[in-house]
Design a protein that fits this description.
It contains 3 helices and no strands. The protein is mainly α. The protein has one domain. The model has no long low-confidence stretch (mean pLDDT 91).
Length: 62
């Protein structure tokens, strides 16, 4: 509550796979590091929060 963080929903995970960030579901240490790197880069580029970026990714699927 009140803390920024990314949300790894089914839709977000699907978009991360489609973008080539991860190959499998985001449970492994290497996948989590890849997720964090991608979210950090997108946060720097957009100026948005991790939660906002998660929403955009989720809404871009289906």
């Amino acid at each position: 509550m009140g803390r920024d963080g990314f949300i790894l929903s089914v839709d977000v995970t699907a978009r991360l796979k489609a973008e080539g960030v991860i190959e499998k579901p985001a449970g492994s240490k290497s996948s989590m590091q890849a997720n964090q790197s991608a979210f950090n880069e997108w946060m720097d580029q957009s100026g948005g929060s991790l939660t906002e970026i998660s929403r955009v990714l989720a809404m871009s699927v289906g």
